Structure formats: structure tokens, C-alpha cells
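Posting here for the record, re: magnesium ion.
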Amino acid sequence: MFSKTLRGTSLRGGRPGGASLAVLLTAWYTMASFVVVSAATGLLYLGLANNLRKISEQSLLDELDVCRALVRERGGDSQALHEEVEIDSAVRRYQKFYVRVLDASGMALSTTPGMDRDLSSSRLAQAAAGQQGIFWIDSPGGAPYRAIVALLPRDSTHRDVWTLQVAVDLTQEQEVLGRQRVWVWAVLAAALIFCPGVGVAIARRGTRPLREVAETARHIGSSTLNERIRAEGYPVEVAVLAEAFNAMLERLEESFARLSRFSADIAHELRTPVNNIRGEAEVALARTRTPEEYGEVLASCLEESVRLSELIESLLFLARSESPGDHLKRTREDLGRLLTDLRDYYEATATEMGVTLTASVGDSVWGDVDRALLQRALGNLVSNALAHCSAGDGIWLSARRQGGQTSIEVRDTGSGISADVLPRVFDRFYRADPARSRNSGGAGLGLAIVRQIVFLHGGDVRISSERGRGTTVSVVLPQST
Ligand SMILES: Nc1ncnc2c1ncn2[C@@H]1O[C@H](COP(=O)(O)OP(=O)(O)OP(=O)(O)O)[C@@H](O)[C@H]1O
Ligand SMILES: [Mg+2]
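Prediction output follows.
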């Protein structure tokens, strides 16, 4: 049972192989938290970049609107435009803001001081040629700008059109984004260092109940099978494991107790015939005996030896049939024939006792059974019936198909078994009437063997009895047999 493997990992001896749960949990936690931190910082960075872009674009568009409004309201007043350009560049102290107004011939009417150095009108016109709306442009010195070039019609005929070139310096925006990138990398590096640490701590904490359960389990031995793991306070999953483990201990303890009782019973049962043989031999050797007396002693010893070897054989049978593996040599058998053979075998004894023994089989009933074993089981049932019948009683053997099953019945009108002991008659070494059974040589193993044989066939055995009225034992075998 314990040699079963868990996902291919043998648990026999030493530590089980495979990755540690704590390591797996740590790895998954680290990966998951790293992905979350990366996604969060990445999204924050993109959000910031987007907002900064929107702000600079909006300021370009605002400037454009102001200039358009000025041209619309004041017509050819280039002085007003010039003032607006001056004011704007003065207001934006931290962000270079360039505005240039060109007349229809391309002459600059107004230019923010310094703009010609960084962004000449031809450079801007060239960059704007292939673009729509706001575009990105670098100065010859490498400074980044966002710019827009727009037409300013001075009257409704659209014949005199000025051109407005507006550019905003992005150096500060790029610096802010650069600092943000440094933060992003710093946060990611910190996550890479801290996440495994936190993961290890969490995994250790999470698996601690498991280690405690394992520790308790490690200390439980055959002499401390009554110990249990206290599941209170543990997480549900571990509590379930602990409860399953406790249930297994319960079963083991019960099996152990049964085995020790069985061993004690075996010792007791073997002692009686051995003591008898020893006693007879000692008494016989105490003084010189006649050959007849020696013969009697030897015959008595032989009888005890036969009983002893039968007992040993029964015990061996029970032990072997409990070990795993199919012990059956199945053949297709006529069960009616099997019952009549059984009747013929016991008929002489029954007649001698004044008991009627009848085998009744209706339609022929066949089954794939181990003939020798089934014969042995049914023989045990018939000899039980004979042992508890007296002159005038009857025993009936019958076999029939019943709802897809085969039912073989041994019914007698003997002394019966009282209801209080009936549930125990299949226990090993159990005798409902020890004095009587012992006289008839019974060890109390017959029904245990019957049950074992029927179980090997995949069937079930039931007993019903009433004190003073008789007993019926039914062996029910599945259809496949
Ligand atoms: N047909 C029956 N009528 C009355 N009592 C029965 C009958 N069959 C079994 N018993 C009771 O059940 C007990 C257990 O039966 P079981 O066949 O296991 O043991 P046994 O007959 O005493 O010994 P063994 O079969 O090992 O020689 C018997 O001791 C007997 O008291
Ligand atoms: Mg018996």
C-alpha cells in the first residue's frame, strides 16, 4: 500500500524527489509580482508621457487660436501679433516657445528671439511639408521641438494669407520623462531584489502547517498509532489533509488491533493441541505401557496433529488470500452439479445423524468459478449445518439466478444462532457456541474462509438465523462469475 508512488515519485525511504513547493511558490510569486510591478510602472510612464504630450500640443493649438483670433479681429495689424509673440515667449520662462509669422511672400513679420538660430523658417516649412497637424522636429543642435505650421487668412477672400509657425521646446519634457525612466528601472530592480525575498517568506509561512503535519506524522510509529494530528487552526487545505491522515491512522490502528488479536488467537489456538500432544506423551512416558496403551496415545496424538495441521492450513489460506493478486483458477462450472457432488459427499454422515440433505437446482446454473475454492466454501457451510443439526432436521442446498446474480443457499433447520452474536460469526476464531464447536473440532475459521473465498470471487455472503429454528447462508456471486 505504501509502495504506491505519488506522481511517479517513490515515497519509500529518504526524501521524495521533485521540486520543493516553497521554491515553486516563490518562483510563481516572484514572476507574478514582477509582471504586475512592470505593468504598473510601464503604464504610469506611458500615462505621464501622454499627458505631457497633450499639454504641449494643447499649448501649440492655444497659441494658434490666439493668433488666428488676433488676425481675424485686427486684420493686418502685425504689431499686435508681434506683441503677442513677445508676451508669450516672456511668460513661458521654463519652456522655450517660438512663434514666427510670415507674410504671403514668406517674409518674417515677427519672430520670437532665438527662433532663427534653432528653427529657421525654411527648416520648419520643409519639415511641415509632408506632415499633417503637429509634428516633431529637432534643431540643428539636437534640441527636440513639437511644432505646427498653419495658414492665417487675413480676409474672407483668402487671397492674402499669412503663415504661422509655432514650436515648443521639449527639452524639459524629455528630462521629466528621462527621470521617470530612471525611476521605472529603479522600481523594477528593487522588485527583482525584494519579490523573491517576500516570496520565500510567504512560501515558508504558507507551507509551515504542512511541515508541522509531516513532523507529527514522522513521529507516529506502531506503538503510537493512537496519536492524531490536531487540525484546528490550520488552513482548510491542510486541515483536510490532516483529517484524511487521521482517518488513515484510525484504520491502521484498527487493523493493527485486529492483527494483534488475531496473533493472540493463533497462539492460543495452537497451544491447545500442542499441549494436548505434550500432555499425552508425558503421561505415556511416565511409566511403562502396554502396546495397546501406546497405540491409543499415538492415535490421540495423531488426531491432535491432524487438527493442528488443518488449523495451520486454514490460517495459511487466509493469509495468502489476503495478499494482493488473483488467486482464482476460474473454470466454467455447472453449479447444480457442484451442489449434488457436495450432497453425495456429505450424504453418508447426514444419514448417520438422521438428517436429510437435499440439493435442489431448477434450471441449470453456470458460473465462472474456482471449483476447488467454491467447493471448500460450500463444504464449510454444509459441515457447519451438520454440526448444528440433530436427528430429524433437514439441510437444503440450492442455486438460482436472481436479478443478474447467482445465489447459492445452504439452509438448515438446526439450532440456529442468536441475534446478538450473529454479526460476529464471520470473525476469525469466533465461535457462537465454543463448547460445542470445540468438541466438533471447530476453530472458528470456517465462515471467515467462506467470506474470503466469496470476496475473491467478487461476491457477498449473508447469513440469517433464528435460535431454535435454523440458519440460512446465501452466497451471492456477480453475473460475470
Ligand atoms: N449453520 C449453523 N447453525 C448454527 N450455528 C452456526 C452455523 N454456522 C455457523 N454457526 C456458528 O458460527 C460459528 C462460527 O462458524 P465457523 O464455521 O466460522 O467456525 P466453526 O464451525 O466453529 O469452526 P471451523 O469452521 O473453523 O471448524 C460457529 O462456532 C457456530 O457457533
Ligand atoms: Mg465451521
